[in-house]
Amino acid sequence: MAATPNDDAPPLKPLQGGALVLLTIAVAFSTFMEVLDMTIVNVSVPHIAGSLGVSPSEGTWTISSYALASAIMQPLTGWLARRFGEVKTFVGSVLLFVLFSMLCGLATSMPMLVICRLMQGAGSGPMVALSLSLLLASYPKAKQGIALALWAMTVVVAPIFGPILGGWLTDNFSWPWIFYINVPVGALAAIITWTLLRKRETKTFKMPIDVIGLVLLVVGVGALQFMLDNGNDNDWFASPMILALGITALVCLTFLIVWELYAKHPVIELSLFKSRNFTVAVVALSLGMMAFFGINVVFPLWLQITLGYTATWAGLASAPVGVLAFLMAPIIGANIQRLELRAVVTFAFIVFAATSFWFASFDSSASFSTLVWPRFVMGIGIACFFIPLNQMYLSGLGADQIASASGLANFCRTLGSSVSTAATVTLWQHRGDYHHAVLTEHISPAAPAADSFLQQLQHGGFSLPQSLGVVEQLINREALTLAVNDVYLVCAVMFVAMIPLLWLAKPPFGNASGAAGH
């Protein structure tokens, strides 16, 4: 058991000066690295699959295995922090992440890579939640808004730079480098954090592990994640396997909720949902991430599949969303005590809805510069969405509850992103099929425009089958573009519909924690 301070020990003073700057950099980089790894692999899947001799669909296991392990570990953060101490748990997580990042790069087969990604994900789970808790505990109360802003910036900007960095490393070096890059960054973050915080460890408690809760969590979340990752390829509930996974997830998660509410030492602190602000903010954060992530998943896919963009250019078209987010975050953080947070998030949802409607007006001839503008404007909303909601769900909680609250909120956010990825890609494909069928109805000898176009192609030297092939390509392109517009419209409506929910939260939202120190 960790050496714990006495109950009557005075609270530790916040860090100051160089130590605080160094800790912020170390914690920010470890958070950045963890979130980055959610997306950096996406663009490298074809290279990884080719290198290890598997199909691209099997290659996506590198993404889903990481997401699965990370999702399971996030709600366990509070229990781990109470059992071993926040500092030890955080540093242990970073070192586990670094070790398995190295092994991922050295993997010589797909099963080895998937196992290493699972373990890397298990290490990453508690990192994001504990990074926030450690930052808030180390900052003076008056500057906790800045700490929250810096933390939020890394969490939001990392997924945007992930595909660009992943594409660049894969194109210029080789895919193992997307994993090796974590090793020096993570090792430094662990050394700095341990050096500065080892004497500031939180109180630990000898707590028995809730085995039944843990098994229900692993099986329930595992089945849900596997269902979401593979549902689209297997035609969802028409597949007996997906149906079985769905039922397993529903039964296990339902039993988990009931069990955890009455367990003496729960692995997940569901009692946090008794706080109105926590519930409202986490629901808004999860649903907001579903809509926001939906746009961010389908946009680069559309650029690459329909408009013929390379992975790097698709990444560059997505990146401008980070510019204003990066500039706005410190301003929101510094003024968080003065702002009406519900109004700030309402503004964010209006910006997201407006830019989604803007996106829905584009056709397949849209230029790079045309596509970049709404992405740039959308950045204003990110800082106004993420930072206030994190402040809202932490308001009124004690310092000892932050790790649990942050872990549970991150779990809900991750789950929202996973559901969003599955749902938006399915919606895009289904709407693409619908628009393809509608557009094809207009291609007949009775349609003068279609007949004229076919004749022009034949005059240009194309045979009739070649001409019909060209028309089919054009129909596909337009159908998928109309379908992507439908996805944007659905996301826009979701953002508008969520605004009333925000106003169920009750101010004051106070400081980000009940106490500055532990």
From TrEMBL:
Protein topology in the membrane: Multi-pass membrane protein
Occurrences of domain Major facilitator superfamily (MFS) profile (ranges): 23-510
SUPFAM superfamilies, alphabetized: MFS general substrate transporter
GO cellular component: plasma membrane
Keywords from the named record: Cell membrane, Membrane, Transmembrane, Transmembrane helix, Transport
Leader peptide range in chain numbering: none
Subcellular location: Cell membrane
Gene3D superfamilies: MFS general substrate transporter like domains (1.20.1250.20), Multidrug resistance protein D (1.20.1720.10)
InterPro entries listed in its UniProt record: EmrB-like, MFS, MFS_dom, MFS_trans_sf
Single GO MF annotation: transmembrane transporter activity
Annotated transmembrane regions: 20-41, 93-115, 121-139, 146-165, 177-197, 209-228, 240-259, 280-303, 309-329, 341-360, 372-389, 487-505
Family affiliation: Belongs to the major facilitator superfamily. EmrB family.
Protein name: EmrB/QacA subfamily drug resistance transporter
